[in-house]
Amino acid sequence: MTRKDEYIEKTKAKLDQWNAEIDKMQAKMDEAQADARIEYRKQLEEMRSQRDEAEAKLKELRESSDSAWEDMKGGFDRAWESLSNAFDRARSRFG
User: Domain map of the chain by residue range?
Assistant: First the structure.
């Protein structure tokens, strides 16, 4: 397995973790009172948006040539950190 493949697998595993967290939050929202559901829905939408953007970035990285991926990795790392922080902030508001 190449470094690129390992990197992509690691990132995919993190996205899978995010998807599991989104599913947990969805279950919390489904059990919440009506007024709390509105806030949960808003946070879930934000988390899904961050996840979708991360998936799109991962797709770009996956489709890059082996020679270009090293150049793209730096930009991806910065974007990933920003997306990860935004996802964590949205998740933390679930309390």
Answer: 3-92
